[in-house]
Amino acid sequence: MMPTLTALLCLGLSVDLRTHVQAGTPPKPTIWAEPGSVVPQGSPVTIWCQGTLGAQWYRLEKEGSSVILDTQSPLGPGNKATLSIQTMIERYAGTYRCSYHTPTGWSERSDPLELVVTGAYKKPRLSALPSPVVTSGGNITLQCHSRQGFSGYVLTEDGEYKLSRAMDAQRLPGGQHQALFPVGAVTPSRRWTFRCYGYLRNSPQVWSEPSNPLELLVSGFYRKPSLLAQPGPRTNLEEYVMTLQCCSETVYESFIIHRDGASGAPGLSGQLRAGGSYASISTGPVAAALLGTYRGFGSLGHDPNVWSAPGAPWTS
């Protein structure tokens, strides 16, 4: 029994003797974790194993360990057992399987459960290439990168989809490590919010802190706004504050002004003006890092994931 693991048994003991005389191997049990199998460091998690009503004992095993974590007699009727980890730490991360015993013998082992702990390393960065603003139906590439020597990265999607993908890291000049995840057919039918994690090859179930969330914005559904710059294109780069103003005849509730190649885009509240709406942002004092091509987008607000077509670009 691993220290700090508390066994709470809801194990099967059936009074129906028909179960006890069934021939053959008992059915394979089901294993899962609540609230989920990706657990922040220090948080509690419960592993569940579900067998049949004829179960007499349940057993939980961790891959790579010769120790059987739990073998117990039933304390009451039921067809499930639970094992509670009060404080998730790195040593509990790994691959688990469970099985149970009936009068006819031991069941098959369950399918594997990958229990992951997060927060072991500093978070990587997640960027969208070329931009987090995507035309409906378009493709985009997400870049997870860090200066830490991660062997691989995992990309996860928030929400009911909760998809995850792992990819080996590539080493770049300058000490960066990255993985590129293609995302295709981005549509406004749902929100597209992602995070990524880094891990080392010898402990693939021990992940970093999650990156900051990255939400893709789907454009092309409303009339494009106009983008104006004041006082205008380049003069003396260190002597003025440049103001960009996004204007539209459509009364948009919010705007974004995005610089090509940047990883994010600031959200701006729309303001009413004669014949439409506008928003403005100051980018100065202007320096070489702020030079580039800017585009403006507008949103009606009832669906924050859906934006207008991009306005004509302005290049500084």
Explain briefly what this protein structure is.
The protein has 316 residues and is an all-beta fold.
List the helices and strands and how they pair.
Blueprint: E1 5-10, E2 30-34, E3 38-40, E4 45-50, E5 57-62, E6 68-72, E7 80-85, E8 94-102, E9 105-106, E10 113-118, E11 125-129, E12 133-135, E13 138-146, E14 152-157, E15 164-168, E16 170-171, E17 177-186, E18 192-200, E19 203-207, E20 214-219, E21 226-230, E22 243-248, E23 254-259, E24 267-269, E25 271-273, E26 276-282, E27 293-299, E28 314-315
Q: What does this molecule look like?
A:
The protein is mainly beta. The protein has three domains: 5-118, Immunoglobulin-like (Sandwich), CATH 2.60.40.10; 125-218, Immunoglobulin-like; 220-315, Immunoglobulins (Immunoglobulin-like). 0% of the residues lie in helices and 48% in strands. It has strands at residues 5-10, 30-34, 38-40, 45-50, 57-62, 68-72, 80-85, 94-102, 105-106, 113-118, 125-129, 133-135, 138-146, 152-157, 164-168, 170-171, 177-186, 192-200, 203-207, 214-219, 226-230, 243-248, 254-259, 267-269, 271-273, 276-282, 293-299, 314-315. Strand 25 (271-273) and strand 26 (276-282) form a beta hairpin. The chain is elongated. Residues 1-22 have low confidence and may be disordered.
